[in-house]
Design goal:
This protein has helices spanning 45-51, 96-104, 109-119, and strands at residues 2-13, 16-24, 27-31, 34-36, 55-69, 72-84, 92-95, 127-130, 139-141. It is of the alpha+beta class. Strands 1, 2, 3, 4, 5, 6, 7, 8 and 9 form a 9-stranded mixed sheet that branches. Strand 1 (2-13) and strand 2 (16-24) form a beta hairpin.
Length: 146
């Protein structure tokens, strides 16, 4: 199976979190900035682009999510980042409680579960999340109450 690296990031401004949106089947889906990392692409380049900054600086690793989908093994790294340079207005700054609600409606567990658990204080920094199958609960180290 092919290996694919992906990255997502929590960008904060006070009590607000930056979310990006996408239209899917007529619905607005909210997510953290990030995506798949292409070969030779700087790790956080996609985050900076989606977040609307010239660059971002990783403050700390929040989670690692491991899963298989579409014939590939994925490892998604979740970081807390700080934007560098002026913000271009991309995405929406959403109060933490609203961000948790919007992210909690995502269908994709490897983003939803670690992000919501971290933002609500249920998961420690650098928690590893592993899905044997995406329709099953993940194993976490250290343990996270789901």
């Amino acid at each position: 199976m092919a290996e694919q690296l992906a990255v997502g990031a929590v960008v904060r401004r006070g009590k607000d979190v930056l979310l990006v949106s996408e239209q899917t089947d007529g619905d607005t889906v909210w997510a953290l900035p990030g995506g798949a990392v292409e070969a030779a692409e700087p790790l956080l380049a996609r985050v900076a682009q989606e977040a609307g900054f010239a660059a971002v600086t990783a403050e700390r690793l929040l989670w690692v999510a491991r899963y298989a989908a579409g014939g590939a093994h994925y490892e998604m790294l979740g970081f807390e980042v700080t934007g560098v340079g002026p913000h271009d207005g991309s995405g929406a700054w959403v109060h933490l409680a609203e961000a948790v609600e919007r992210l909690g409606r995502m269908w994709f567990a490897p983003i939803r579960e670690p992000a919501v658990a971290y933002l609500t204080g249920r998961a420690r920094v650098a928690t590893v999340w592993t899905w044997a199958a995406l329709d099953e609960p993940p194993a976490t180290v250290p343990h996270v109450a789901l």
